[in-house]
Amino acid sequence: MSHYIVEVENLNKAYKSGHQALKDVNLQIKQGEILALLGPNGAGKTTLISIICGLVNPGSGSVRVAGFDVIKDYRQSRQRIGLVPQELVVSMFETVWNSVVFSRGMFGKARNDAYLQSVLQSLSLWEKRDSKVMELSGGMKRRLLIAKALAHEPEVLFLDEPTAGVDVELRRDMWRLVEQLRQQGVTIILTTHYIEEAEEIADRIGIISRGEVLLVEEKQQLMTRLGQKQLMLQLQQPLPQVPDSLAAYQLDLSEDGLMLTYTYDGGSDHNHVTEMLGAIERARLELKDVHTKQRTLEQIFVSLLEEAL
Ligand SMILES: Nc1ncnc2c1ncn2[C@@H]1O[C@H](COP(=O)(O)OP(=O)(O)OP(=O)(O)O)[C@@H](O)[C@H]1O
């Protein structure tokens, strides 16, 4: 068996409206990783997740979860998946406890109250177990969606925009839980508009635009490959202009003459930082401070999308 928990091959999807939501998507998700899917509104992220979860029919191509085809072996594949949807889909009159018991039962899993208790506790919902869903705050309802998705102990968890509109505290709790789940070996796929979030927690980043997967890459590798770096040199004395001896480094001098900025390719093994600093010394420029800046994932993302247009 392959070590990929989710395998998407040559997937195409056109909605009845004629809109081609996915174009020849290929994606292999590794067991135990955190994959962040980024893409602008309408890129096809939710469609992709819905097909993997068996909620939307693929047009053509194939999708397997833990080796089970999402159509032919629907029950087998679906059982392994937990889905936290964007929108609330819970009965308002049910209690918190009953709704997680129900979610677990739906997948034919034997009752395990101790497990469900631990899920509710990890989401700070245990005290609310006897409350009706309608009595919960918005943030608590969000937590309940996650609890329901985890009720049957899935191997793969999909989080579709889990932190849209939630407060800082809930967001932090959520990422703590994601980290715990990862340690338990759960594979996590999340879509988010908060790119800093992906930058922080994902192992790999996938970028989707107009139904196509533009790239899937290890986050670290992506950041080094495309993340330009800047070295900023703060000077003791203002400079009227960049000395000729430093021309080769194309330094940028600030208006006030107190800051020199050197931009270089973070992914290249052959940058000229040391040389440049040597030249600075020979030019007898006195430095007050030095700091570096790296291009953020957000900046990389935006420029990749622009290139793709
Ligand atoms: N049931 C449907 N019928 C017709 N078109 C649809 C349907 N669902 C989605 N679409 C279209 O397919 C495209 C992809 O939508 P999808 O929801 O997958 O995007 P997304 O990347 O999840 O966007 P967002 O970030 O806004 O959630 C959009 O153009 C959308 O209008």
From TrEMBL:
Q: Which InterPro entries match?
A: AAA+_ATPase, ABC_transporter-like_ATP-bd, ABC_transporter-like_CS, ABC_transporter_ATP-binding, P-loop_NTPase
Entry keywords, A to Z: ATP-binding, Nucleotide-binding, Transport
* PROSITE patterns according to UniProt: ABC_TRANSPORTER_1, ABC_TRANSPORTER_2
Q: Name one GO molecular function term.
A: ATP binding
Pfam families recorded: ABC_tran
> Would the keyword Heme be found if you checked this record's keyword annotation?
no
Q: What is the species of this protein?
A: Alkalimonas cellulosilytica
What protein does this entry describe?
Answer: ABC transporter ATP-binding protein
PANTHER family linked: ABC TRANSPORTER ATP-BINDING PROTEIN (PTHR42711:SF10)
